[in-house]
Write a structure and sequence with these properties.
- The complex is a heterodimer of chains A (282) and B (313).
- Chain A is mostly helical.
- In chain A, 74% of the residues lie in helices and 3% in strands.
- Chain A is built from eleven helices and two strands, in the order ααααββααααααα.
- A two-stranded antiparallel ribbon of chain A has the order 1-2.
- The longest helix of chain A is centred in the N-terminal third of the chain and has 27 residues, at 2-28.
- In chain B, 78% of the residues lie in helices and 3% in strands.
- Chain B has a two-stranded antiparallel ribbon.
- In chain B, strand 2 (147-149) and strand 3 (152-154) form a beta hairpin.
- In chain B, helix 2 runs parallel beside helix 7 (158-181), helix 7 (158-181) crosses helix 8 and helix 8 packs across helix 10.
- Classes of the chains: A mainly alpha (282), B mainly alpha (313).
- The interface between A and B is large, with 38 and 37 residues.
């Protein structure tokens, strides 16, 4: 039962990271290898704000805004010059970026893991076991952020622009939508979501510079299993995979439980390469 | 005709310089050059995929690592014989390569990359957790096998080890060069240029890709064996993603699709690392990563491609 709850909570965080990744892919055709590093840097900015005496919520806000700005800068400097080039070039560029950011974090913050103090320490009893409230709050908050994103894409002018750009870049540009600006905004937005999840998840795992590679692989799996560029599919896939890993860790060590999701990914790629939760194209 | 003889003059000049290296260089640099040759071989193997077939493998560490572990297994469980290590390493790498090739070649573009990446992580987890056979996190330590031919046997000195590595790398290079110029290599390049059209012409693209991945994996395994023999230990770190990433960096820095370029890229990378470590200590990847990104944006052909174009003008 605890496994079920843990799986759900991990799944929501993973969904938050993966939805940023899939958003960026869906709109820009960019596979962002540096996404995990944005997540990690977000968590680090959070620790800095907390160390300066700020509250947890302030840390969450500051981290998101900082990474939003960083994302915009990164997109302008590295990805915009590559627009229209081979997709390979963007993969390589973001891979280089992840190296730089990861080692920057190591240099700036040192190799010792930092802790984010959780804002709630209360527990509640469920099935004879103590379960921390904070985990439930994480899941709810992640869901709220994703709901907000969905509403934003559905209703706001910018959201409509983003969806239009995803459908047909040339046509969108012809209709007067500032496509390059939309790209920058989407990259920043994805980054900010990663940063928010970094701060939210920080209290559970501790923050160090290896966070990025750890989450990025799982986020990739989620995005592929859910269908590249498919927001709803990613959320479902994230929860599904986390539940699977959570239950698998009953029988094997957590390190080996990862293999379960790897195998799921490969099976998906072989039989439903467009994603598990996408209707088969006719 | 003049171009071709120019190529061979260059080839023998470089070969001669590399062959003379252990006689004139001090201990540290001698080792350095040997190591660059081994990493260069690994980079060259990955170039078959990145540069010629047009698919990026982010999982070359799996082939490299399995070559290493295969060699170590042969040396520890059977006899400390160089050729036995070679056979075991190649067998291990080939098995893994066949497995990965079968699945990954069904996919295209980024999906291929993710698939190879995931496979390499699977092997990493297996090696990391299967402590009885692989030594887990600590890896395995063994004695260096002597250089032997039937009826003659001598322990490796740094110089003979260097020549041994050099000869294997050179032979592999010549073989791969021949392969890339063969009709088979031409089909691979056709796949890189336009996969759908190649399929439409009637080539069985998947089969060609499988062979390309296997060839590449085999050469990567060879590099792993050489590295294991040189350093007398194997560790799970070499199966981790970092190694695969570095291989991609070598290719991009040096120039994809040239075979020599990746070796040059490996040399540049390690020289940069040595040079920059003085100022940035262990954070040398910050400037290296920036140089890498600048190369991607401004020199998509890599260093060798850039030099070649400058020379042609």
């Amino acid at each position: 039962m605890i496994q079920l709850l843990n799986g759900l909570v991990n799944g929501m965080i993973l969904a938050l990271v993966a939805s940023g990744l899939t958003l960026i892919f869906g709109i820009m055709d960019v596979v962002n290898f540096a996404h995990g590093e944005l997540y990690m840097l977000g968590a680090y900015v959070g620790t800095t704000v907390l160390a300066a005496g700020g509250s947890f919520w302030l840390a969450l806000g500051v981290a998101s805004v900082t990474i939003f700005c960083l994302g915009a800068a990164i997109q302008l400097v590295t990805l915009r010059p590559l627009l229209g080039r081979d997709p390979l070039a963007t993969i390589l560029a973001t891979f280089g970026l992840s190296l730089v950011l990861q080692n920057y974090a190591l240099w700036q913050y040192g190799p010792v893991a930092r802790k984010i103090q959780e804002p709630f320490t209360g527990h509640f009893r469920i099935f004879q076991l103590e379960y921390p409230w904070y985990r439930i709050i994480i899941a709810v908050l992640s869901a709220a952020i994703m709901l907000a994103l969905w509403l934003f894409l559905k209703r706001a002018t910018w959201g409509i622009w983003i969806r239009a750009t995803a459908q047909d870049r040339t046509m969108a540009a012809a209709m007067g939508i500032p496509v390059p600006l939309v790209h920058t905004a989407v990259f920043s937005l994805g980054g900010a979501m990663a940063a928010a999840s970094g701060v939210l998840y920080g209290p559970l795992v501790g923050v160090d510079q290896t966070l990025g590679p750890g989450i990025i692989l799982r986020a990739f799996i989620v995005v592929v299993v859910g269908g590249m560029g498919n927001l709803g599919g990613s959320v479902l896939a994230a929860v599904f995979i986390s539940l699977l890993e959570s239950f698998a860790s009953l029988w094997m060590s957590p390190a080996q439980a990862v293999i379960v999701s790897f195998v799921l990914l490969i099976v998906t790629l072989l039989f439903r390469p467009t994603g598990l939760f996408v209707p088969t194209p006719k | 005709m003049a171009r071709r003889s120019g190529y061979w003059i260059g080839f023998f000049l470089v070969l001669g310089a590399l062959g003379a290296a252990p006689l004139v260089l001090p201990e540290f640099w001698r080792r350095f050059v040997t190591e660059i040759l081994i990493w260069g071989l690994l980079a060259m193997s990955s170039d078959i995929l990145i540069g010629y077939t047009g698919v990026v493998s982010f999982g070359h560490s799996a082939f490299f690592g399995l070559g290493m572990y295969g060699a170590a297994f042969g040396l520890l469980r059977f006899r400390p014989n160089l050729w036995l290590a070679l056979a075991f390493g190649l067998l291990a790498a080939a098995t893994v390569a066949a497995f990965v090739a079968y699945f990954s070649t069904r996919l295209r573009d980024i999906y291929f990359s993710i698939c190879t990446l995931v496979f390499s992580q699977i092997f990493y987890v297996i090696i990391f957790t299967w402590t009885e056979v692989t030594g887990g996190e600590n890896g395995l330590v063994f004695r260096q096998p002597p250089l032997s031919v039937p009826g003659w046997q001598r322990a490796f000195t740094p110089a003979t080890l260097h020549w041994f590595v050099l000869s294997i790398v050179t032979l592999t290079y010549l073989a791969l060069r021949q392969v890339t110029r063969s009709p088979f290599g031409m089909v691979l390049q056709a796949i890189r240029e336009n996969e759908s059209r190649t399929m439409a012409i009637g080539y069985d693209v998947k089969r060609y890709k499988i062979v390309a991945v296997m060839l590449s994996g085999l050469c990567a395994g060879l590099a792993g064996i050489l590295y294991a023999v040189q350093n007398r230990f194997v560790a799970p770190n070499f199966v981790f993603f970092d190694v695969s990433g570095e291989v991609v960096i070598f290719n991009v820095l040096g120039g994809m699709g040239t075979l020599v370029g990746p070796v040059l890229g490996a040399a540049v990378f390690f020289l940069l690392r040595e040079g920059l470590s003085r100022y940035f200590t262990e954070y040398y990847l910050i400037p290296v990563g920036m140089i890498f990104m600048l190369t991607v944006i401004f020199l998509p052909q890599g260093l060798l491609g850039f030099l070649r174009r400058q020379l042609n003008q």
